[in-house]
Design a protein that fits this description.
- The chain has 576 residues and is an alpha/beta fold.
- It folds into three domains: 74 residues, Immunoglobulin-like, CATH 2.60.40.10; 400 residues, TIM Barrel (Alpha-Beta Barrel); 66 residues, Golgi alpha-mannosidase II (Immunoglobulin-like), CATH 2.60.40.
- 26% of the residues lie in helices and 21% in strands.
- It is built from 14 helices and 28 strands.
- It has an eight-stranded parallel beta barrel with strand order 9-10-11-14-15-16-19-20, surrounded by five helices.
- Helix 6 packs parallel to helix 7, helix 8 packs antiparallel against helix 9 and helix 11 runs parallel beside helix 14.
- The longest helix has 19 residues.
- The protein starts with 5 loop residues before the first strand and ends with a strand.
- Keywords: Carbohydrate metabolism, Cytoplasm, Glycosidase, Hydrolase.
Length: 576
């Protein structure tokens, strides 16, 4: 908890609650709505926990569900933090999602240090690349020192080995001074399996499973307090930490059946923080629903979120270039799929999905839906890490194919996101890793991963052990670029510069021109009356019936007035 308020905890389950403060134990009294309070005022640096009585025995102390710091890990005492910080970036005015270039990174593997300080050292590189916002994979505390972050259990705290609360604030401050915003990935659909003591206090979950953990109770009895807890975490990130945006993990896994969606309430907190601080705050959802309500304004009956991750364009582009059509890629793999997703964002618009075995999604209104509301990418932590070996596209594709995919994403009107290392063709994997403090959990995680990939046709012996330190260490980026990697990162810098100079991020989707060839003559043309990307999505030469003046290419196309000849996996940005 934060300082200068009485110690308090919501705990409807226990018969009695005591405050453990260092070596002392103090009584607490129950007040309305099942809250317990102590007469002791919290002071910065105090270590504390709560002891719970079930009617027969005392247990604990347990960490505070609303802890803001766990310096000794998820099983240790909580620490009172001071919300004040000596900010140096008060001139930061922020920016909306429109026009952003996002860079997704995992703090632990982005640099050798694996800390917020390490990220700070790379801000100049990211700014020069053309990045305007970094998106941090979850930084809430988890078991051990190695984890993707989606096993977090203390939703208001910051993992201590990354740098803790002050370390995150220092990163935000430095990023803002560098002209870069900060987006934080947050998980409200489940708690991690290691160190989740919240169920000792009250009904934070409601039974059932998301596949990652029990369903969070945002619609059942006592859910008002759970919702309030979530909204307080959102307010903390926006106001105390000055985070610019939140990315909500897998909102399709939320048991959100109330008349007011939790997403709508989260957006309301963001709007309030925007008004109070004068700096734009925004919310992006990860969703598998293909439901435009998420990003439709509240005035028009939607939830009013600023944006959502869009897997459809990734899937359509990935299958075209890689040739992979297994699992959830089975519905893609055609020029028609790529054409539709680039035009309409969603591939499934009330149409049949073979993978799901049912109809899925609904269309957006292209006339009113701004393109920037959809975040697109050539890959993400999921699309890499949820492969059996964590192999990146850059480990399987040629430089020409990698840059071709980047050209499509970075030339589209949607908000682009780059996954760390992608921009230089990293040859290190990004495998799934964890270090639960319970060895049985580590064993179950390892066995579960092997079974999952065996069912998908992978050799289970190829699956790295998630709990092995080697799996984590091998996933760290190598910042020593080869000559080939230098050419790739230079191409990314150029494409991002041209995205701005050519005005490719246009909000009105009705202006966007998309044309494709045939499955025997696989080319793509995408752009506007004045500028166009033409691309060869095959290993055979093609002639695209669009010409003009060559602006940029990673190869050596022949650009005429009315047509452009492209070699294998080649593209050209042309002025028409």
């Amino acid at each position: 908890m934060s300082a200068y308020e009485p110690f308090a905890v919501w705990a409807p389950y226990p018969q009695d609650v005591r405050l453990r403060l260092g070596d002392d134990t103090l009584p607490m009294r129950r007040i309305s709505a099942d809250w317990w309070v102590a007469d002791q005022i919290a002071e910065p640096g105090m270590r504390y926990g709560f002891e719970l009585h079930d009617g027969n025995n005392w247990a604990g102390p347990f960490p505070d569900p609303r802890t803001t710091s766990q310096p000794d890990g998820i099983h240790g005492l909580s620490e009172v933090t001071d919300p004040a910080y000596d900010w140096t970036s008060d001139n930061w005015t922020g920016r909306d999602l429109a026009g952003q270039v996002i860079y997704e990174l995992h703090v632990g593997t982005f640099t050798p240090e694996g800390t917020f300080e390490g990220v700070i050292e790379k801000l100049g590189y990211l700014r020069d690349l053309g990045v305007t916002a970094i998106e941090l994979m979850p930084v809430q505390p988890f078991g051990g020192d190695r984890n993707w972050g989606y096993d977090g259990v203390d939703w208001m705290a910051v993992h201590h080995t990354y740098g803790g609360p002050d370390g995150l604030k220092k990163l935000v401050d430095a990023a803002h001074n560098a002209g870069i915003g900060v987006i934080l990935d947050v998980v409200y659909n489940h708690f991690g399996p290691d160190g989740n003591y919240n169920g000792m206090y009250g009904p934070y979950t409601s039974g059932g499973t998301t596949g990652w953990g029990e369903v969070v109770n945002i619609s059942g009895p006592h859910s008002d307090e759970v919702r309030a807890f979530i909204l307080d975490t959102v307010r903390q990130w926006f106001v105390e930490y000055r985070i610019d945006g939140l990315r909500l993990d897998a909102v399709h896994a939320l048991d959100d059946v109330g008349a007011y969606s939790i997403m709508e309430q989260i957006q309301a907190v963001a709007d309030d923080a925007t008004v109070r601080t004068g700096v734009p705050r925004y919310v992006i959802a990860e969703s598998d629903l293909n439901d435009p309500r998420l990003v439709t304004s509240r005035e028009a009956g939607g939830y009013g979120l600023a944006g959502q991750w869009l897997d459809d364009i990734h899937h359509a582009l990935h299958t075209m270039v890689s040739g992979e059509t297994h699992a959830y890629y089975e519905d893609y793999g055609s020029l028609d799929a790529l054409d539709k997703t680039l035009r309409e964002a969603y591939f499934f618009t009330g149409t049949y999905s073979s993978f799901r075995g049912r109809h899925h999604g609904r269309p957006i209104n292209r006339a009113t839906m701004p393109a920037h509301r959809f975040v697109t990418y050539t890959t993400t932590h999921d699309q890499v890490g949820n492969r059996a070996t964590g192999d990146r596209p850059s480990m399987n594709l040629t430089p020409a194919q990698q840059v071709l995919k980047a050209a499509v994403i970075l030339s589209s009107p949607y908000t682009p996101m780059v996954f760390m290392g992608e921009e230089y063709g990293a040859q290190t994997p990004f495998a799934f890793f964890c270090s639960h403090t319970d060895e049985k959990l580590n064993q179950l995680t390892t066995e579960g991963r092997k079974r999952e990939f065996a069912r998908a046709g992978w050799n289970h012996d190829e699956v790295p052990d998630p709990a092995s330190p080697t799996t984590y260490e091998s996933s760290k980026l190598d910042w020593n670029f080869s000559d080939e990697q230098e050419t790739i990162v230079d191409a990314y810098r150029t494409l991002l510069r041209l995205r701005t100079e050519l005005g490719l991020a246009r909000a009105d989707l009705t202006q966007l021109i998309v044309e494709t060839g045939t499955e025997d003559d696989r080319w793509l043309a995408m752009g506007y009356d004045d500028v166009m990307l033409v691309a060869n999505l095959s290993s055979a030469p093609v002639a695209v019936p669009f010409g003009g003046e060559l602006v940029y290419s990673f190869g050596s196309p022949t650009v005429g007035l009315d047509a452009t000849e492209l070699e294998a996996w080649e593209f050209a940005l042309i002025r028409r």
